[in-house]
From TrEMBL:
Gene3D superfamilies, per the entry: Phosphate transport system protein phou homolog 2, domain 2 (1.20.58.220)
Annotated family: Belongs to the UPF0111 family.
Name of the featured protein: DUF47 domain-containing protein
InterPro entries: PhoU-like_sf (IPR038078), Put_Phosphate_transp_reg (IPR018445), UPF0111_domain (IPR052912)
Amino acid sequence: MRFRLTPRETSFYDMFSASADNIVTGSKLLMELLGADSAARAEIAERMRAAEHAGDDATHAIFHQLNSSFITPFDREDIYNLASSLDDIMDFMEEAVDLVVLYQVEELPKGVEQQIEVLARAAELTAEAMPGLRTMSNLTEYWIEVNRLENQADQIHRKLLAHLFNGKYDAMEVLKLKQIVDVLEEAADAFEHVANTVETIAVKES
């Protein structure tokens, strides 16, 4: 760890943790969506929308702190990238829930539950990792595991696409379901972007 003679703004750590905790909330709402009927889904979508707004607020708070801080705990570009990637995760999860409601999807295809389980695990790992930014310790297993989960998400996504194009669904239903599973895959990619940014920060600070 590099020795610094100047004090650093430490509130970023708490804000990153708050943003990641909010993503865990979003992942739990995705889990709720799986077994919900149409009426319950609408209510879940409202709660997800509120969580997404909370995520936006957390991101804006980080950007405001970044713009008003003379000294930051690590590179400004990395702070911006980390905050943006965390925000992207929440945006993709909210979009997926909204699409399920807007498209009035009666039954999600088999495999979506696996996608969501991967996202929920990645959310837990990300929330657990954020406090580690203070010391840059014990983070290696985090980014390795999130990268593994993203590879798993890719495999699940490919199987889902094969299932959607097997002739069981009509063309319009395929378009709707494909957009939903694609957005969930983008959420998995965004988790990997967060992990890669954390790895970049840790390498620079070592």
